[in-house]
Amino acid sequence: MGALGLNSSTSFDHKTGVTSQISNYTVVNGEAGQVASFSGSPVNYTWTDGIPNRTVSATNTGVYISGQNRGLQIRVPADATPRQLTVFMGVFATQARITVHLSDNSAADNVDTSFASSGSQAGAFTVRYAAASPGQSLTVTILQNTSGGNVNLQSAALQ
Predict the structure, then answer these.
(1) Residue pLDDT, tens place only, 44-64
(2) Confidence of residue 128 (pLDDT cuts 50, 70, 90)
(3) pLDDT tens digits for 78-123?
(4) Spatial separation of the C-alpha atoms in residues 98 and 64, rounded to whole Å
(5) How far is CA 137 from CA 3, 58, 72, 142, in A?
(6) What separation in angstroms does the CA of 101 have from each of 59, 107, 109, 150?
(7) Separation of alpha carbons 37 and 144, rounded Å
């Protein structure tokens, strides 16, 4: 579990008692100061085993960035073990360009530009993956593909 933006644009909650496997976000084609937190997403999520916030019930927060070709990126481990990553994100008055990349290039990048709205839209996507070799990573990049609006990232879950 990784959740973003609960208290500020730098808030990052993750599962307690284990080494976090979901990275905090990094900014793509921009600067950390351009990221802001928000609340009011139609998607709510809850956790009971987090750190620094142990229990959170029905939060609808996240982080967003504005500007064409700017975005947010997260990384998770990859090896021959099949895994599943679910990412909760959204757009406001723009189109997102979502790219999923395995570091060993054992599969072609998956690029999706179907997530778009003239207003606010939130949702989730799930990636089932495995790398061909140990010690790899899967990177998910969410870029703002058109001018105006913003893209946001709320949380991710890895199984």
Answers:
(1) 889 899 999 999 988 999 999
(2) very high
(3) 999 999 999 999 999 999 999 999 999 999 999 999 999 999 999 9
(4) 15
(5) 19, 30, 16, 16
(6) 29, 8, 5, 22
(7) 17
> Are the C-beta atoms of residues 99 and 110 closer than 8 Å to each other?
yes
DSSP 134: S
Tell me how many domains the chain contains.
1
The pair of structure tokens assigned to 127 is 């990636």
Residue 133: give the domain boundaries.
Answer: 2-158
Buried b (16+ CB within 10 A) or exposed e, 15-43: beeeebbbbebebbebeeeebebbeebee
- Angle (nearest 5°) at CA 44 between 90 and 125: 45
Report the alpha-carbon distance of residue 122 to residue 63 in Å, rounded: 12
pTM above 0.70, yes or no: yes
- Please calculate the CA angle 41-47-48 and round it to the nearest 5 degrees: 155
What CA–CA distance (Å, rounded) separates 95 from 85?
Answer: 22
Helices (H) and strands (E) in the chain, counts: 0, 14
AA identity, residue 17: G
CATH of the domain at 125: 2.60.120.260
